[in-house]
UniProtKB/TrEMBL annotation:
One example GO MF annotation: zinc ion transmembrane transporter activity
Protein name from the UniProt record: Co/Zn/Cd efflux system component
Subcellular location(s) per record: Membrane
GO cellular component: plasma membrane
Keywords from the UniProt entry: Ion transport, Membrane, Transmembrane, Transmembrane helix, Transport, Zinc, Zinc transport
Bilayer-spanning residue ranges: 21-47, 59-76, 83-102, 114-131, 151-168, 174-193
Superkingdom classification of source: Bacteria
SUPFAM superfamilies to which the protein is assigned, alphabetical: Cation efflux protein transmembrane domain-like
Domain annotation Cation efflux protein transmembrane: ranges: 21-199
Pfam families: Cation_efflux (PF01545)
Length: 204
């Protein structure tokens, strides 16, 4: 009896998660385009890093939509792929930040601040939308972690814009890139560990 009662609840949760993912995908794809243009225009590594993050999240949401309704093993495999992609993103941003230490000039802070605030609003809305799914399987958890990290990263971008405006230095931009890299690497480890545990459980 309990299994029959739980089935409709699980189906409803999956459908709600699907709707949330479609909204998140649309928001992230739009912000990716906006931040690429703004990042190039302002010369901001933080905005370009955030744009790449939006692109990665768009791909992650698309993968999550693809595996919905599939066997749990595919959810775990998708989470593993997303976790590894977050790790690659973190390494890329960290490398770019180190390059900027030696080569970079100060970015244009007004564009950084305005676009950073828009990105923050977008990511807070997506994180709030996905908050209800934060305790699900590795696939759901990875989606929540991506959204949470984005919101935290946008706060850092806005702070960097204020720092660049006040100092005229590229160091705040570099510092934000390093923070975003660390967030991506930390989330990558969490998701990969949980995904591996779920894959082992499927094989047992």
């Amino acid at each position: 009896m309990s299994a029959h009662c739980c089935a409709p609840q699980a189906a409803a949760k999956t459908q709600a998660f699907r709707r949330a993912l479609w909204i998140a995908l649309a928001v992230n794809a739009s912000m990716f385009v906006l931040e690429i243009v703004a990042g190039v225009s302002a010369g901001s590594l933080a905005l370009l890093a955030d744009a790449l993050d939006f692109f990665g999240d768009s791909a992650n949401y698309a993968i999550s939509l693809l595996v919905l309704g599939m066997l749990p093993v595919w959810h775990a495999r998708a989470a593993m792929l997303k976790g590894l992609s977050m790790g690659v993103f973190g390494c890329f941003v960290l490398g770019a930040a180190l390059w900027r230490v030696w080569q970079g000039a100060a970015p244009e802070p007004i564009t950084m601040g305005v676009v950073g605030v828009l990105a923050l609003l977008a990511n807070v809305a997506v994180a709030w939308l996905l908050y209800a799914f934060r305790e699900g399987n590795a696939n759901m958890r990875s989606v929540w972690l991506c959204s949470r990290n984005d919101a935290l990263g946008n706060l850092a971008v806005v702070a960097a814009a204020v720092g660049v405006f006040g100092t005229g230095s590229h160091w705040p931009d570099v510092a934000v890139a390093a923070v975003m890299a660390s967030l991506a690497l930390t989330a990558s480890v969490q998701v990969v560990v949980q995904a591996r545990a779920e894959l082992r459980g499927q094989q047992a």
